[in-house]
Amino acid sequence: MKRKLQIILVITVAALLLFACAPAPVTPDPSGEIVIVQIDQEGAMRFSPENIVLTAGQPVRLIVQNQGEKSHEFMIGSEVAYRSSDGAPIGFEDDFFEGIDVAGNITLGQGVMLMGIEGMEGMDMGEGMGEEGMGEEGMEEEGEEHGGFMLMSNPSSGTTILEFTVPEDKVGTWIIGCFLDNGSHFEDGMRATLTVVAP
Ligand SMILES: [Cu+2]
């Protein structure tokens, strides 16, 4: 009997620990708005929040801000793609934004480059988008490159706003990631979970 109690206690403690470690899911406010921040202070590469839940069929307004000291990417997809030569993570096999009508509803921040949307690729060349930001950290290497939707923002670039409605066929778990510096941002924790739930 005593042993049974011990087992129950161990399981309870383990469950509590697991619960405490998982970042709490964040949902958009009642107007559909959710702010996603890119952070890199003191080596802490991450997105905040790290766990986002969207509901299919509901209009959402993603507000993306680079509050770090480095350039960062914003991509959403599933199935991380790795470069064949060195195994570095370089993007996603499946692009979340494929099939999502977002093109006409993007407000780019200053110095933010948009890629992966046909007929809309370009950048708002704001101040501070020098050679430095896009050069060495560039996204192409030996024929393998990012596919799909991507925002590339320099430090202190403005706010980028993406407005869209998540289609029901996107229900599932997705990853938000930055693959700069040869995938090291992603490996250092610059990733977040995006879960799309059915209405
Ligand atoms: Cu990054």
Report what the structure shows.
With 199 residues, the protein is mainly β. The protein has a single domain (25-197), classed as Cupredoxins -  blue copper proteins (Immunoglobulin-like, Sandwich). 14% of the residues lie in helices and 39% in strands. The protein contains 3 helices and 15 strands. Strands 3, 5, 6, 8, 9, 12, 14 and 15 form an 8-stranded mixed sheet that branches. The chain has a 5-stranded mixed sheet with strand order 2-1-4-13-7, with no helix packed on it. The radius of gyration is 19 Å and the shape is globular.
Q: Give a quick account of the main beta sheet: strands, pairing sense, barrel closure.
A: 8 strands, mixed
Low-confidence stretches: 125-143
Number of structural units classed as domains: 1
Output the helix-strand order: HEEEEEEEEEHEEEEEHE
Strand composition percent: 35-45%
| CATH fold name | Immunoglobulin-like
Q: What's the CATH architecture name?
A: Sandwich
Number of strands: 15
What small-molecule ligands were found?
copper (II) ion
* Helix segment tally: 3
Helical percentage: 10-25%
What is the CA–CA distance across the termini?
A: 45 Å
Q: What sort of overall outline do the alpha carbons produce when their principal axes are compared?
A: globular
**Whole-number radius of gyration?**
19 Å
Q: What is the average of the pLDDT values?
A: 84
**CATH superfamily name?**
Cupredoxins -  blue copper proteins
Based on secondary structure, the structural category is mainly beta
- Class in CATH? Mainly Beta
